[in-house]
Design brief:
Blueprint lengths: L1 H21 L4 E5 L8 E6 L5 E7 L10 H9 L3 E5 L11 E2 L8 H17 L4 E10 L1 H10 L7 E5 L14 E6 L3 H11 L11 E2 L8 E6 L11 H15 L10 H21 L13 H19 L12 H21 L9 H25 L10 H21 L7 H21 L1 H4 L2 H26 L2 H19 L3 E2 L2
Parallel strand pairs: 3-4, 3-6, 5-11, 6-7, 7-8, 8-10
Antiparallel strand pairs: 1-2, 2-4, 9-10
Helix pairs in contact: 1-7, 2-6, 3-4, 7-10, 7-14, 8-9, 8-12, 9-11, 10-15, 11-15, 12-14, 14-15
Length: 496
């Protein structure tokens, strides 16, 4: 059974990778020169024809990889596509800076970076001098403002748009695309459309893109803020809108990457089960605390940690809220481990083999699963400046997940206990945000990431814990994976 499942997972992984790589067929993808410190990629079809440039910008905590469905679609349609990592994101070694609340602060700096990429792409021999911008979420405002600056845009595609810079006449040829489940952003797109025609409806075009007066708003069905990036409706609308603005007709494919990426991630995670089954079998059952001890160990850290840290201004890592999160995890984990010690749950948890099993868990999560993520989903490889961030987060993530794994008996505890532990920690972060909403607002963005981590890596950690009877091994390994995941994902920021 173990060998059969491993073979099936490997076959599905290979099939998914083959399909995803087919979307690159006929394209040349190489670094874009002339962008300074900004890492940028140039996508162009293997032809000698000149074409308009499309500059693609990702949203907050995103990267070039996340925007690749648009890059591949437009490159296959014959456009010269430049995609890049904003300061503080992905492989970009320069932290974000400035005032994030002011259009003249961080926004202006990101506009300058976008303009630098646009000029470098326009200097390419295949560029025909025309330019369009495409941006998602945070970058929708950046590209709209940049299209009104220098170099100006002949068309704009704003995905999951919010911007106060839109008027009834500017920017020219604006397409606003939102996921149908992004209710507020759909209404914002409709508001912007109705600046040109108060009676306009979603899916309707006002003005004439060929004359520079076009505007359109679309809701891609059955997707949300991230899913919209993989929606074939959103991809086709962007391509067709640029074709209308530039007087072109494209016949390139619209890649269906979302389903194949989902299959690849599921197959990669499923590969963890037969690998866990190959580990040494547990020699004895994991101890579990009594009901009263469990409730105290689960709830006291959740309540005490945010109250204890509320008076302190914790800023020592160059990543938004990562410093607070590292300390929150460390204190939470330390309190939990004290309870585990008092309940006698730490005895026998740290034999020598626990550490090599923990290393195997970390390698699988970071190198195997992370390698897939980096190639097809989002940046997962840190540059040198992120190494201290990962290390700092590990000092908190390892004790936190170590305590969590021991209380859940390495996945052998009843499901209700596991749910209590997960909900208690998320509630603890929510309480921290409530106590300092302005300073810790960005923790709200981290919450879905942690939920996904629990669902995916928590399941894999349970396979290891139940097989080996070593909750500590799963906890230490997953702590390193969590630290890496958060350390490479969230924007680096220099407040000075």
């Amino acid at each position: 059974m173990r060998v059969l499942l491993a073979a099936i997972a490997a076959i599905l992984m290979a099939l998914s990778i083959w399909q995803l790589e087919q979307d690159r067929s006929g394209l040349t993808i190489r670094p874009l020169e002339g962008t300074g410190t900004t890492p940028a990629s140039l996508y162009l079809r293997d032809t000698d024809a000149k074409a308009p440039v499309v500059v693609i910008a990702h949203g907050f905590a995103g990267s070039r990889q996340l925007m690749e469905p648009f890059a591949l679609t437009l490159a296959q349609a014959g456009y010269l596509v430049a995609s890049f990592d904003f300061e503080g994101h992905g492989r970009n070694p320069v932290p974000m800076s400035g005032d994030v609340t002011s259009p003249d602060g961080t926004t202006r700096l990101l506009m300058a970076e976008t303009a630098r990429v646009a000029r470098a792409a326009l200097a390419h021999p295949r560029a025909d001098g025309r330019l369009a911008y495409l941006g998602h979420s945070m970058a929708s405002d950046i590209v709209i403002r940049q299209a009104l600056s220098d170099p100006p845009g002949d068309a704009v595609v704003a995905v999951s748009m919010f911007s106060q810079a839109v008027t009834g006449a500017e920017p020219v040829n604006l397409l606003a695309v939102s996921g149908a489940w992004e209710t507020r952003l759909v209404q914002e797109s409709l508001r912007v459309l109705r600046l040109t025609d108060p009676e306009a409806q979603l899916g309707q075009t006002t003005g004439d893109p060929a004359q520079g007066t076009g505007r359109r708003a679309v809701a891609a069905p059955m997707v949300e803020h991230v899913g919209v990036l993989y929606s074939q409706t959103a991809l086709a609308e962007a391509r067709d809108w640029l074709d209308a603005a530039f007087g072109r007709s494209s016949d390139g494919p619209v890649p269906a990457r979302g389903g194949w990426i989902a299959l690849l991630l599921v197959a990669t995670a499923a590969l963890g089960w037969p690998m866990a089954r190959s580990l040494p079998r547990a020699r004895m059952a994991c101890p579990q605390p009594g009901r009263r001890g469990f409730w105290l160990a689960a709830l006291v850290p959740a309540l005490v940690t945010p109250l204890l840290l509320a008076p302190f201004d914790l800023r020592f890592l160059p990543v938004l809220v990562a410093d607070y999160l590292a300390v929150h995890l460390a204190v939470y984990g330390a309190i939990t481990l004290v309870f585990c010690w008092r309940l006698g749950l730490l005895r026998g948890q740290f034999p020598a083999r626990a550490f090599w099993v923990a290393g195997a868990v970390a390698v699988f999560g970071i190198a195997v699963f992370g390698g897939v993520l980096d190639r097809y989903v989002a940046s997962f490889v840190p540059h040198a400046g992120r190494v201290p961030v990962v290390a700092g987060l590990a000092l908190g993530a390892v004790p936190f997940l170590l305590g969590d794994a021991i209380l859940s008996a390495g996945g052998r505890a009843p499901v209700w206990r596991v749910l209590v532990l997960r909900v208690a920690f998320l509630a603890s972060l929510a309480l921290a945000v409530a106590l300092d909403f302005e300073g810790l607002f960005f923790l709200v963005i981290i919450l879905p990431v942690i939920v996904l981590f629990f669902l995916l890596f928590g399941t894999m950690g349970g396979w290891v814990g139940r097989r080996t009877g070593l909750p500590a091994a799963a906890g230490i390994g997953l702590g390193l994976v969590l630290a890496w995941s958060l350390g490479v994902s969230f924007p680096m920021f220099n407040a000075i």
